[in-house]
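Help needed: design a sequence for this.
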């Protein structure tokens, strides 16, 4: 019965108590998910697997979880991400999905009793977004979380920015810290990852801690590396952002005399002429470097603004 509703990648929504018809996997793994996690109790009308909706006075669409708003946008985000990660996994992503347990727990949890407009995860993601937009320090974020938990004793929220960052990392939004030589000679990475001194200038990897005999070693400099590949995968894994990633082809201006977007510029058009095979697939991505307020290690007295 379910075979006709498999998508073009061979995936289908799973009505188990874990996936809740929000995550999709390969059809052959459906039975194992049902046995392991159980069937959704509220899924009486199989609207995702062939049955049509009936015109009754109430909705027959199953709610993702009791108390959580049924239109919580994070259900779609996690569903798309997990579907993408599960592709190519011989066991339907069961092993890879273990990293999402905490995310699903936060997604199914109400932020506060009787508040269904936000799940705990949705609220935390929006808080982290505000932190970035307004350049809050980690300490100020910790103090905000502490105040919220003092004011609302039953609020379901993490205790610190460190815990919030760990949760966001599971969504593919983390970064890798790489130690840098004191004089910027080399990175302590790959073949140099275990070295204690710079292979070029022989300076120590660590700062000297005066008055301290032991404790945590502090590197002179740290490079935060944000891998591009996983982030591009996330952009294409989520249906909303995947549409925006193709906008340069589907939504560009039809007026040749007006430039509204880089795709209308001569540089973009010249690139397409030189690389027709690359330009032929609208999903291919062109990366640009922005250096707004670029101030390495705070060495400059004023912020430097330049678009590259």
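Sure. Designed sequence:
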């Amino acid at each position: 019965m379910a075979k006709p509703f498999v998508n073009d990648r061979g995936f289908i929504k799973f009505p188990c108590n874990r996936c809740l018809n929000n995550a999709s996997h390969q059809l052959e793994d459906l039975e194992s998910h049902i046995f392991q996690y159980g069937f959704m109790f509220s899924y009486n009308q199989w609207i995702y697997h062939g049955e049509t909706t009936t015109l009754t006075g109430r909705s027959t669409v199953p709610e993702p979880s009791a108390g959580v708003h049924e239109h919580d946008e994070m259900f779609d985000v996690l569903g798309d991400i997990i579907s993408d990660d599960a592709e190519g996994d011989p066991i339907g992503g069961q092993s890879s999905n273990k990293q999402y347990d905490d995310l699903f727990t936060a997604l199914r949890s109400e932020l506060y009793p009787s508040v269904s407009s936000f799940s705990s995860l949705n609220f935390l993601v929006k808080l982290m977004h505000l932190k970035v937009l307004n350049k809050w320090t980690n300490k100020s974020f910790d103090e905000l979380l502490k105040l919220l938990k003092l004011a609302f004793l039953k609020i379901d929220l993490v205790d610190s920015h460190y815990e919030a960052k760990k949760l966001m990392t599971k969504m593919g939004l983390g970064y890798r810290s790489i130690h840098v030589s004191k004089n910027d000679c080399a990175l302590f990475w790959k073949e140099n990852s275990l070295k204690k001194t710079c292979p070029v200038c022989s300076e120590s990897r660590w700062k000297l801690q005066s008055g301290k005999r032991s404790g945590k070693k502090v590197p002179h400099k740290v490079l935060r590396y944000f891998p591009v590949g996983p982030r591009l995968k996330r952009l294409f894994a989520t249906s909303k952002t995947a549409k925006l990633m193709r906008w340069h082809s589907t939504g560009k201006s039809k007026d040749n005399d007006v430039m509204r977007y880089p795709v209308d510029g001569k540089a973009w058009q010249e690139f397409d002429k030189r690389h027709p095979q690359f330009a032929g697939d609208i999903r291919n991505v062109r990366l640009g470097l922005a250096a707004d307020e670029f101030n390495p290690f705070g060495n400059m007295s004023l912020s430097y603004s330049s678009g590259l």
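Residues 15 and 21 are 5 Å apart (CA to CA).
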